[in-house]
Amino acid sequence: MGDWLYLIIAIAVVAVASVVGLVASRRGRGPAEVAAPPPPVAVEAPTEVEPVAPAPEPVLERPEGTASRLVRLRQRLAGSQGGLGRGLLALLSRDRLDEDTWESIEDTLLTADVGVAPTQELVEHLRTRLRVEGGPVDARTVLREELLNLVGPDLDRRLQVSGADGNPGVVLVVGVNGSGKTTTVGKISRILVAEDRKVVLGAADTFRAAAVEQLATWGERVGVDVVRGPEGTDPASVAFEAVKEGVATGADTVIVDTAGRLQNKAGLMDELGKVKRVIEKQAPVTEVLLVLDATTGQNGLIQARVFSEVVNVTGIVLTKLDGSAKGGIVVQVQRELGVPVKLVGLGEGPDDLAPFDAGAFVDALLG
Ligand SMILES: Nc1nc2c(ncn2[C@@H]2O[C@H](COP(=O)(O)OP(=O)(O)OP(=O)(O)O)[C@@H](O)[C@H]2O)c(=O)[nH]1
Ligand SMILES: [Mg+2]
Asked: Residue 163: which region, alpha, beta or left (left: phi > 0; alpha: psi -120 to 50)?
């Protein structure tokens, strides 16, 4: 009986002890959980996120400097046009300058698009001088002088890129489809940027979205603002806005690109006249450049005439002279319009545009 009593007491003691222990351990755990909250995930997160790269600074191109550009392009001009002078010199150096030889000289000039009247004039002068001056005259010297007279050494070929009375210079660029207008606008802007001038471009070719993008790309490459409107906007209003921005931002020059147009579409030609008139509500147009593709020959002359009736063309840009030996078109087009060739395009590269220099041109012809 005594044994049973000890056993019951022992069981009771163990039971009480376990209950007490359980309660104690519960009490201890509770507050511990509150005191130690799980570490906030958000605090650690930033170290695991990839650092956001800053937007890359647009890398602006530095247009080629004038000196190296001119040396490079004179060589290219001599490469494409040198055949004319070499051909003429070979003929003029013959022992006897008979009628057949003079005829070949004429043919050579006509093939290079010098034009009928200027060719006859030149041949007349050469015949007289070589006969009169006789003896050991240097055919090359005589030919150089006569070609130079034909090209017009005294024409004012400066590009009017500056305005008066606090206005920017405004250059309007016109011509038929594909003649090289947009490319020329881009190239001119690079030349001006290289001279530290502030330029604004106006994308007034609103017929095709691609045309606007093409100009915008030229602008972006050298950090020049391009004013544009939605596709199909009135070109005159884009031109107006571009000049307005030029005035407001104190730009030196605003260059307005226009849509290519066929010279026989009266409506489009009228619209071009309107572009010019609307611009002039903001500031005078200081230069109207007609862009002509040198490879189009007589056709280019007809275009030139029509354009000059609609807008007062003040300068000609002859493009693609690198791709044709027909540099004689310089002579014809200047006569036709009474307006000087001011720039020549000599390739598709961004800096392949040169001011036209009569002496350098004739030297290139003579190789
Ligand atoms: N080889 C050569 N290609 C040129 C020259 N100028 C322009 N081009 C090329 O001629 C093509 C037409 O040039 P654009 O500037 O688009 O002609 P555009 O007059 O603006 O054409 P539209 O806007 O369609 O009327 C392009 O492929 C130019 O790269 C040049 O002096 N030499
Ligand atoms: Mg264009």
From this structure: beta
